[in-house]
Amino acid sequence: MFDIQEELKKLPQKPGVYLMKDQFENIIYVGKAVNLRNRVRQYFQSSRNHSPKVQKMVLHIKEFEYIVTDSEVEALILECNLIKKYRPKYNIRLKDDKHYPYIKITVNEAYPKVFMTRKLLKDKAKYFGPYTDGLALKETLELIKKHWPIRTCNRVLPRDIGKERPCLQYHIGQCKAPCAGLISEEDYKKMIAEIISFLDGKYEDVIKELENQMQVASEELNFEKAAQLRDQILSIKRIAQKQNMINASMEDQDVIAFAKKEDEALVQVYFVRGGKVVGREHFLLDGVDETSPTDIMTSFIKQFYAGTTFIPKEIILQEEIDELEIIQSWLSDRKGHKVYIKVPKKGEKSKLVEMAEKNAELTLNQFGEEMKRKEQRTKGAVEEIQNAIGIEETIHRIEAYDISNTQGIESVGSMVVFEGGKPKRSDYRKFKIKSVLGPNDYASMEEVIRRRFTHAKEELEGLKEKGLTVDEGKFTKLPQLILIDGGKGQIHAAQKVLEELNISIPVCGMVKDDKHRTRGLLYNDEEIGPPLGTEGFKLITRIQDEAHRFAIEYHRKLRSKAQIQSVLDEIPGVGSVRKKALLEHFGSVQRLKEASIEEIRQVEGIPNNIAEQIFNFFHQR
C-alpha cells in the first residue's frame, strides 16, 4: 500500500521532476523542482494558499514518483518532454503541437531535398516551422519548387548517379537532374543555400545573389535564363513587400502575447527575422481555467521551444515568466548563443506586444464560437452520454467493439477508441477470431474482450515489475465506458469476461432500428438516451459507424487475401515465389486473368509451359 506521508519523508533535497498519479495510476500532473522534498510537500500541507485548480488536483492524487536530475535545467527539459508525452490532465497543454507540419531540408545529404514533414528528428537536417496554416505551407513549397529546380525523388545520391535516365521532372524544367550528373554538387548546394535564406526571411541576400546571376546570364547573351531569374526576383520581392519593417536593429525576434477566455487561451506568435515580420502563428492552450497569466506564459514558452527548431536571439513577451534565468540558460544552450527574454513596458517593442495581444483577442473571438461548437460536439457530447447512463466517474476514454463475418467465415473483431469525444486512431486494434467456429457473435465478442483486457492485466503487472508507468503500455490505458455494437447477448458476453478479470467498467450496447440506424444505448437491460438529435446521440452514431467501418475493412482485407491464395494455389506449378512475382507484375488476380499468354510469359521466373497453364486455368474456368 502506498503511504504518501511515508514517501514524503524519503524525498531527496535535490532538483528533479515529480509525477502525480490518480487511483488508476494515470499521470495527472508533471512538475519540476529545485528541491523535490520541499516542493512536493507543499501539495499536502494547508490548502489555503493553493489555487482552486491545485486543490481539486490534490484530491485525486493517490501516489507519486520522482526522477532526480543533476541540475534544474535538466529538470526543465525532462518536465517538457514528459508533459508532451503524457499530456497530464492538470498541466496547461499546448493543443495538437505535435501535429503541426514543418519544412525539412536534408542538408546532411550530398543533394538535399525539401519537403513537408510532421516529425522532428535528430538527423542533422534543417527544419522550418511549425506552420499552423496549411495553405501558407503549401504556397511556400510551391514557390520553392517553381523557382529552385531541386530534386523530389528518393534516389540515393551520389551512389545512384548515372544508373537511370532523368525523369519527367527534368524534362519539364522542375529538376536539374543530379541523378544524371547534369549539375555539380557545389551548384546544387548554392540553390539549397538560397532556399534556406529565403525561409529564414533574408530576402535581400537571395535577391542580391539572383540579380548577380541575372547580370551574368545577360552578359553571356543567355536571355532565356536571365528572364527566368528576373521573374524569380519579382516573385520574391512581392512576398517581401508584404512584410512590415518593424525593427531597425535587424535582429531575429519572436513576439508572444495571448488572450484568455474560460478554460482556453490563444497565443499569438509573431516571427521577426532580419527586422521584418515574416509570419505569425496562433496556438491553443487548454486547461488554463483559474491559472495566472504568468503560469500561462511560462507553460507556453517551455512547451513551444521544446518542440520548435529555430530559437531567435530575443524573445519579447506580454507577461513575466517564472524561472526566467533557468529558461534563458536552457534556450541559450539549445541555440549555442545567448538568448534574451524581455517584457517591455514602453517603446517599439511594447507596441509589438500590443499588436500581438490585439490579434490574439481578435483571433480568439473569431474562433470562439467555432471552438464552442467543437467543444459541444466532443466533450459536451460525452457529458450527455455520461448523464444518460447515470455514472459519477468522468468519462474521458470510450472503447467500442464490433464483430464482422460472412456466414462465420473469417470472423474478426474491431476496437475503436474515442478520447474527449474524438477518435484516437493510434489506439485502434483489430482481432482475428481464433477460438470460435461458425457465426457466433456472442462467443466472438467474449474472445475479443478477454484478449484485450487480459493483455492489459498482464502488461500492467510487467510494467510494475520494471518500475514503469501505466501510460508506457499499449493496453494498460483502460476506458471509463465500453460500447458494444449489439444487444443483450453481446453485452452479457462482455460483462462476463470483465467480472472474471475483476474489472469494473460500465458496458452499453449500441442498438439499431429496423432500418439499421442507431437508435440508442442499452444499459442494465434497459434502453436509454441521449435523446434523438442531441450531440450525445450523434456521437454514439459516429462511434457505432466507426467501429462497424473498421471491422468491415479488416474483414474484407482478410477475405480478399484468402481469395487470392485459394485461386492461385489451385494452379499446378505456381508456388509462393511465382505467385508473388505474378501479383507484383499484374497488381491483382483480375488483371492476371485478363492477360494474354504473351503477357504472362514476360513475367520474370515464369516458364512458357507454366504461362500456358495459368492462361488455360482462368479461361477454361
TrEMBL record:
Keyword Coiled coil: yes
UVR domain mapped to chain residues: 204-239
Record has Cytoplasm as a keyword: yes
SUPFAM superfamilies given in the database record: C-terminal UvrC-binding domain of UvrB (SSF46600), GIY-YIG endonuclease (SSF82771), RuvA domain 2-like (SSF47781)
UniProt domain GIY-YIG: residue ranges: 13-92
Gene3D superfamilies documented for this protein: 5' to 3' exonuclease, C-terminal subdomain, GIY-YIG endonuclease, UVR domain, UvrC, RNAse H endonuclease domain
Coiled coil: 200-227
Residue stretches making up the UvrC family homology region profile domain: 255-498
Domain of life: Bacteria
Main location: cytoplasm
Keyword tags: Coiled coil, Cytoplasm, DNA damage, DNA excision, DNA repair, Excision nuclease, SOS response
Subcellular compartments: Cytoplasm
Entries under SMART domains matching the protein: GIYc
InterPro entries, sorted: DisA/LigA_HHH, GIY-YIG_endonuc, GIY-YIG_endonuc_sf, GIY-YIG_UvrC_Cho, RuvA_2-like, UVR_dom, UVR_dom_sf, UvrABC_protein_C
Protein family membership: Belongs to the UvrC family.
Subunit organization: Interacts with UvrB in an incision complex.
Function field: The UvrABC repair system catalyzes the recognition and processing of DNA lesions. UvrC both incises the 5' and 3' sides of the lesion. The N-terminal half is responsible for the 3' incision and the C-terminal half is responsible for the 5' incision.
HAMAP family from the UniProt entry: UvrC
UniProt-recorded name of the protein: UvrABC system protein C
